[in-house]
Predict the structure.
Amino acid sequence: MLETTIKTFQELTTQELYDVLQLRSEVFVVEQDCVYQDIDGKDQKSLHVLGYKNKTLVAYTRLFKPGDYFKEASIGRVVVKHSERQHQYGYDIMNASIEAIKNHYQVTTIKISAQTYLKRFYNNLEFHEIGEEYLEDGIPHIGMIKR
């Protein structure tokens, strides 16, 4: 099980921010071979969920309150270090994120923009597809919602 912590942007230490940006770049830019602007000006209004194994950041998400990204609350930048995926940390970080949205924003409806190949993973967390598949930064995505 991951050890998770939740922080605002202002609460992140310089080292924590560096680790987050390094993990996001490692997976979204290098592993997925996708050139895109990860540092998008939205981290400042997000809640950050950091997942640690032995004091090393191995999983992460960022959360938005309703109206900041979608009309509904949202979870984005869901990432697990490649070498740690066999431990099911994706479920740990997502469950911590869903709980954080309930606790911090007092809502249960969550909308995400999911990479299409992860539909089953999100279905297992009670997210359901809405709308048509679309390309985001050259990668197939689908809107999903959890009520």
